[in-house]
């Protein structure tokens, strides 16, 4: 099937909408992570046992990841049946609503055990929303992008994610600096209430997007799969497994963002909340530049080598970062945090949207990316809970957590080594078993 080129300006428009939408969507998702580490153990759980309260709070962070594979089945199906745009709008509204409701929840002191139950319910809705967000945005940008710049354009979804995380961190900085009584009574609610603006802005931006030429061509010729999941599992099951394995690299992000924050601010280390939030903010600021840079490199040398740098490098550097936290040396923590998360992890983070998306045909691209990534991300989400358990009763066994994180980086390395290189494959031939990366002299530069 011949796919027409996107109209002039559409690739940039799609990338911009993906960036802004993902930033707004993941602002919602990441303020929960900060609150789970710093606030919720005291608001929704039993303060008489701080270690258990922290463990349960971090478990609610992972609950959203458990819901994501279920959401991926439904949103992936409808995204490949009805189009990328409809899913992008729906996920943003659902995330904004569920996040706003978290800010309205009663505390444990007010309604007892009902409070954490309601918290988990809202967190599940967040997970369902996130399940379709990245896959739909990645599919939208990949199918709009010029063939020789797919890596660069699809990276905007992930740099948007980092932008959302940066925004969430910056919003939490003044909140975390509030006196304890104000922080625990009303202060923590403000970032969640701001999700109303998130939903409105995101809705306006995404409503203006055009559907992708690749999906529109399928609709015109009647080639849209009636049951995308059946086609996916019949023709692309091995690639789904590769994406599941590759997505485990997200464990680096969740350990860095949530467990390391909780560890650094615990009595074992004693760093202040604000100082550690600044580490995350500056690392994400660097990532905003590093992600498109790595993605551009992947357009030149291929997806596999760049992804391998990110996965293998993160396994090593997480040892150094967690060790730095154990020393209590803030300059060391800051430098290694920026290098680990802002630079090296960004290699895998910047290239996976194109790397995974190029494994599938247009008929099942959104389903393949959504299901594969969300199963892997589910493990990554609960990695925080496992890390809290592995860290021992005092929560200070950082070396075991570092080893655990490194072990979770092994499947991504295997997935990349076993995958085909697709950086130079024409867009209309992506996902075909016989499509091969042409030699440089056969590649036509648009």
TrEMBL record:
Annotated membrane topology: Multi-pass membrane protein
Subcellular location: Cell membrane
Species of origin: Streptomyces phaeofaciens
Chief subcellular location: membrane
Region (Disordered): 425-446
Transmembrane segments: 26-45, 51-75, 87-108, 152-174, 186-205, 243-264, 276-294, 306-324, 330-352, 364-388, 400-419
GO cellular component, one term: plasma membrane
Protein name (database record): MFS transporter
PANTHER family membership: SHIKIMATE TRANSPORTER
Residue span(s) of domain Major facilitator superfamily (MFS) profile: 14-424
Keywords of the record: Cell membrane, Membrane, Transmembrane, Transmembrane helix, Transport
Molecular function GO terms recorded: transmembrane transporter activity
Source organism phylogeny: Bacteria, Bacillati, Actinomycetota, Actinomycetes, Kitasatosporales
């Amino acid at each position: 099937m011949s796919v027409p080129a996107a109209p002039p300006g559409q690739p940039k428009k799609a990338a911009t909408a993906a960036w802004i939408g993902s930033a707004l969507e993941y602002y919602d998702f990441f303020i929960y992570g900060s609150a789970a580490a710093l606030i919720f153990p005291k608001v929704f759980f039993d303060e008489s046992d701080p270690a258990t309260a922290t463990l349960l709070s971090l478990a609610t962070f992972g609950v959203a990841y458990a819901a994501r594979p279920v959401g991926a089945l439904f949103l992936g199906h409808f995204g490949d049946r009805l189009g990328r745009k409809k899913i992008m709008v729906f996920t943003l509204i659902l995330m904004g609503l569920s996040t706003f409701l978290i800010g309205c929840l009663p505390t444990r002191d007010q309604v007892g055990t009902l409070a954490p139950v309601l918290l988990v319910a809202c967190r599940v809705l967040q997970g369902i929303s996130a399940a379709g967000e990245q896959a739909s945005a990645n599919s939208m940008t990949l199918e709009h992008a010029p063939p020789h710049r797919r890596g660069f354009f699809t990276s905007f979804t992930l740099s948007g994610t980092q932008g959302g995380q940066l925004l969430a961190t910056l919003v939490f900085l003044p909140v975390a600096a509030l006196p304890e009584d104000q922080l625990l009574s009303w202060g923590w609610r403000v970032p969640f209430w701001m999700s109303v603006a998130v939903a409105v802005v995101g809705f306006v931006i995404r409503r203006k997007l055009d559907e992708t030429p690749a999906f529109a061509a399928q609709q015109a010729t009647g080639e849209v799969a009636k049951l995308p999941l059946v086609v996916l599992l019949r023709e692309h099951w091995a690639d789904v497994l590769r994406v599941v394995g590759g997505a485990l690299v997200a464990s680096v992000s969740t350990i860095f963002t949530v467990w390391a924050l909780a560890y650094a601010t615990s009595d074992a280390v004693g760093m202040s909340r604000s100082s550690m939030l600044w580490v995350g903010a500056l690392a994400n600021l660097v990532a905003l530049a590093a992600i498109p840079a790595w993605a551009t490199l992947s357009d030149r040398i291929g997806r596999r080598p760049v992804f391998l740098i990110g996965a293998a490098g993160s396994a090593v550097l997480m040892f150094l970062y967690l060790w730095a936290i154990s020393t209590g040396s803030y300059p060391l923590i800051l430098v290694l945090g920026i290098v680990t998360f802002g630079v090296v992890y960004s290699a895998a983070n910047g290239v996976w949207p194109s790397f995974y998306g190029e494994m599938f045909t247009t008929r099942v691209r959104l389903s393949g990316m959504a299901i594969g990534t969300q199963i892997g991300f589910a493990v990554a989400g609960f990695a925080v809970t496992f890390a809290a358990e592995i860290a021992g009763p005092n929560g200070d066994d950082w070396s075991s957590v570092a080893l655990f994180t490194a072990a979770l980086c092994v499947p991504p390395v295997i997935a990349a080594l076993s995958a085909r290189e697709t950086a130079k494959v024409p867009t209309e031939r992506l996902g075909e078993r016989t499509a091969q990366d042409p030699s440089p002299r056969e590649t036509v530069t648009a």
